[in-house]
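Practice set, problem 2.
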Amino acid sequence: MKKIFDINSLQSKIEKLKKKNKKIVLCHGVFDLIHLGHINHLQSAKSFGDILVVSLTTDKYVNKGPGRPFFNEKNRAKVISNLKMVDFVVINNSATAVSLITLLKPNIYCKGPDYKKNKDDITGEIKNEIKSIKRVKGKIVYTEGITFSSSSLLNKFSDNFSDQQKKKLSKINRKYNSKYFEKLFSNFNKLKVLIIGEAIIDEYIFCDALGKSGKEPVLALREMKSERYIGGSLAIAQNVSQFCENTKIITMLGKDNTYLKEIKSKLNKKIKLNFIEKKNSTTIVKKRFVDYLSYNKLLGVYNLNDDLLNQNDEDKFQKILRNQIPKFDLVIVSDYGHGLISKKTSDLICKKSKFLALNAQINSSNVGYHTMRNYKNLECVIINEREIRHEFRDRSNDLKILIKKLSKEQKIKNLIVTSGKKGATLYNLDNNKFVYSEALAKNVVDKIGAGDSMLALIALCLKSKVDKLLSLFIGSLAASYSTETMANKEHINKMKILKGLEHLLK
């Protein structure tokens, strides 16, 4: 018998069954790895009525850390539909069960015993679901019995994480709990954070490759759609603003404030935007042509002016910095080498900042010209392995040797070097110790924006004197989420990070 239905077909069936006085019970969840706790829960739920409907959270809304769900929505639905006590299965294309409850109007909404204490649900969504079931004149019922955790089982026994990662997770789990992270993130809100750096618009043009041109050896593309995302210092500010009420950007836009209206429409309203106009320039736009099926990048076309600011503009910029920097607890600099920050300006930033974090990127337009040697006495720096090897023109020496050398030369207290799939290394100059975090990303779509996400979280953690290993782990988690979408299409979400930590540390 067919059990899996779309929401509209199921709604029709449920209405007919209710007219026959059948009592409808709804259970909602991820059901990523079916275990005894699920079986007991569903059997108990069925005892409260005549028809048991199980709704599954669709893949894109499963927020339980990298690599989750372990089984996709179709496979999860198939497994649930094979359970005898289940009458109908539906994939819920929403983050919560609220809309589903409104549509199906079940008599009973059934949750497991771990939801009895509503205050333990850090999302607060269980309260909204309770309101929803009451509005349709139904009631919520909690099952009894021993609970198990799919997350705990998958963390321990699946190949989602290496043995080394499992040891790190276990070590962190023994020391910290969800209440610690809630309090930590709440304390972030007290920090005043200033972001300095170039504003960038990332434009992604999704194309269908038609093939080689008939007359020339040129790849012909058909444009399917295009999307624009805010990047650079704008993306970092957007990430920080999810945690901090007082967030400000000092940046550079093109002449006539090109893209200002679009930038303001996409920025969190609580972010304060302070900028100068750069003469003879446009706001930086980086276009990337992308295959719309594979998401492979085919070509990049950048519209920018890499010249340094003229004297008048630099004087304006430095005046703003002198006035603003002392007012902030944490300064984050994203120096992409596109002419905003001169050596004189970087000296000013280093001198005036109470706590300075830096990402000085080498990219296709500045390689061979840009350097992070303009900065000294920093609390936190993030670069990738390619960048540190470029700084020393050294491709063969042990990475730890280069990390120590750069830290001492530039007086960097915490230097984080990312190495792609190999993960990230943090070196603390004061105690001469290294900590490591393997890469958490599982479903990489695009790496652009990952460093910005990592920088935002690690800077907040280190400023708040969080343990170095934990700081690196939280930053790596933020970066892993960033790689799951194109560029900075989606920014860091505080609740998503909290939920990810909660499930990873079970």
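Problem 2, part (b): a different protein.
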Amino acid sequence: MNFNPHINKRNEDSNKGTFGRVLVIAGSENMSGCVFFCSMGALRTGCGLVNIYTHKDNLLPLKTLVPEAIFDQFDDFTKENPYERLDYLLQRADSVVIGPGLKYGEESYKLVLHVIKNFDKHIVLDAEALNVISHNFSIENVLDDSFKADFKHPLYNINKNRSLIITPHLYELSRLTKERPDMLKDHLNEFALEIAKKYGIITVLKDHNTRVSDGKDVYTNKTGNSALAKAGSGDILAGMIGSLILQDEYTFRAVNTAVYLHGKAGELAGAKLSEYSTISRDILDYISQAILTIKSDEKIYYNNVIAEVMNASFR
């Protein structure tokens, strides 16, 4: 199976349920921007519906910025059943993206653990979701031959009937592994592969050439530029992953596609607006053009047109 990025032809006999519901759990008080970028990243890449679960103070601006979404506010974490509403939303979701803009602390940690424990489909852990885990658990010495993953670690996903995807940049990866960022940068392939293999997850290690691994292969992305080095860019990618994994039978390939398209959107925006002036809203605007650059080979399989990008490679 070729896991280079691709997209499927959309089935004309469809509705919003056909393409899946993404639950975005993000945004503590005064952090509505990250929720916007994550949700729009998901919507721009084809999911049928986005449900936003956020702090109540974010609802007013977000209802204006993302009228396409459905909104819910965080439960009162002091009440006897603090996850009553969340559990209802988890039952309805097809994927969960959790972490962008959450407040660092015990409440967020418990929230992340609750989702990991109670959701058995696709989970994307980004930003603060990774940081709160790192504060309580680590993945030290993962490259050592003698390393054995702790099955009690929240990221341990072997033999579980769901996909778990992590999206750390170098400093978030440093917190997870207790390794220096410069050392990690020199060994991204190894860390991507070994963490994925030993924990049963998909790793997206964000860098100039982002690495994606399922524990068997390492995909090295070739798209992107400095236009992506802006606040909100990573939130967009998390949303794109949460959406595209619902539209491909191969989760690893869907994640590769999201990383590729995110980088391509940055390239297109940078070429038009300059890498200096591009902001994350511009990246969102160019996702559709990035999708249109993926070439179809016109071979039809079960009503799907398989499209592949050949300038992405494995290492």
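Answer key, part (b): The radius of gyration is 18 Å. The longest strand covers residues 49-54.
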